[in-house]
Amino acid sequence: MRENTAVAVASPNIALIKYWGNRDDALRLPANGSISMTLGGLETITEVAFTEGRRGDALTINGRPASPDSLRRVSQHLDAIREIAGIGAGAQVRSRSNFPAGSGIASSAAAFAALTLAAAHAAGLRLDARALSRIARRGSGSASRSIFGGFVEWQAGASDEESFAALLMPGGDWPLVDLVAVVSRKRKAAGSTEGHALAATSPIQAARVADAPRRLAECRAALRARDFARLAAVVEHDSYLMHAVMMTSRPSLLYWIPDTVRVIQAVAAWRAAGLEVCATVDAGPNVHCLCAPAAAAGIGRRLRRLPGIVEVLRCPPGSEARLLPRFPSSAKPR
Ligand code: DP6
Description:
Layout: E1 3-10, E2 13-17, E3 22-24, E4 29-30, E5 34-38, E6 44-51, E7 58-61, E8 64-65, H1 68-85, E9 90-97, H2 107-122, H3 129-139, H4 143-146, E10 151-155, E11 164-169, E12 177-182, H5 192-198, H6 204-210, H7 212-225, H8 228-247, H9 258-272, E13 277-280, E14 287-291, H10 296-305, E15 311-315, E16 322-324
Parallel strand pairs: 7-9
Antiparallel strand pairs: 1-6, 1-16, 2-5, 3-4, 5-10, 6-9, 7-8, 10-11, 12-14, 12-15, 13-14
Helix pairs in contact: 1-2, 1-3, 2-3, 7-8
């Protein structure tokens, strides 16, 4: 039996301008474009081994067999890659992350970026980053952005061919720090995929989507000018717009808990006092506190003194997804 194996690593990302709602759920063509920063220090490593003649796939996550739902989603993604490569072999997949599950980090972004790169390579495909981004998108929308490092823009596009991410600015050009204030590790009640499907039930979604080109342009301009005040204004506004859509969907989605609001208000007070920090929240209760490089250490100390904080993860801009020579024998604890 022939085996074709590859290993890849990818990092999650935090959306500065959010993806929420799809124009096509099956292809994950988003309702609007989005911009993110890839998160350094956090990694998912995935090995894919296709074996000729093998039927079905197997998946372990952090050394344990994955749930049937996770396996189904991974198998579906492998099917898309098998179709492109023209192979039928089943795969053994193992995956390990160095960040705590349920820590408020979009784990599906890193997971599907690493899975896409490893599976494509193991299937014999040699694809450029754009093609990988398009495939990763179909596994999890935000994974299209985790193919790249630094600051990344995913252009919405109107078709599978047009919807992919690209590098906007290398992280080294403005090494912002994302301090993730973890206030809960409970699994969220509604996953992103379910949430995207509800977006159109909010009357606010149409206005949010219509205004997206302006926010994207504002975010690009703020990043290029390294203008923190300008970036903070558009990042917070965009986060509030997405949560307004979530809260006004039917049924309503409320991801915040009281500790979320406490952190958001503390960040607002610190910025009013002159510190370069702003807050953005994805589909969960934890708050991403984006800091100018010089402000990060002081903000970290302040965050750790707030009540309700479980831990604070410190993430500088991270690297693009890449192949590794082998699956490491033990995960580095973070
Ligand atoms: C709030 O990419 O996790 O983090 O495509 O269904 O896997 P699926 O959803 P996902 O949605 C991310 C939503 C978000 C905003 C963002 O990352 O842009």
